[in-house]
Amino acid sequence: MAEQPWGQPYPVRPQQQPYGQPWQPVPTAQSAMRASNTDRDRTVDVLKAAYAEGRLSREEYGQRFDAVHKAQTYGQLAQIVADLPAGPMPGPFGPATAGLPAAYGPVPMPMPVPLPMPLPARRVNGMAITSLALGVLSLPTLGAAGLGAVATGHVAKAQIRARGDEGTGLATIGLVLGWLSVGGWVLLFLLAGFGALD
Q1: Please, which residues have CB within 8 angstroms of residue 132's CB and are 6 or more apart in sequence?
Q2: 158 vs 103: which has the higher pLDDT
Q3: Which of 65, 167, 92, 98 is nearest to 126 (CA)?
């Protein structure tokens, strides 16, 4: 055996052991649990990724692929992918997580992040609704409700500006219909007045 310059022998590398032998996962209660087809599929996905990345040769991939379909427990699946970056499950094989001692009670659950509160819907101004209703009623009443539509429409516009309510469009429609009916009555009186003068 060759020696290093300071007189100690070079460390001898252990011979390559068959796959699955160099490192074994820590046995847990989950290691003995029976594996399902889904667990085997996840393990095969890990093998496919390792083969695609060049971590496994074709022969080793084939051996491990056959071993996956023969495996019956989580522990056997963990041994197959123990030297690869990911395992068959998202972490059931490690040692139990360190938590608080039993004297402190159960481990507290993390608090969920609250969802942002939705903004309250702005309310529709009541006077704007009244203005629209009176404006629509001014048509079947031949304009009798027109003055009410105009008055409530202007009050609604002032309240909407002051309070920030909804309903600007409703008040505007009520005002237009109210002014049309008022204009119709004014036109009717003017025509009647000019007709009486003739």
Answers
A1: 149, 170, 171, 173, 174, 177
A2: 158
A3: 167
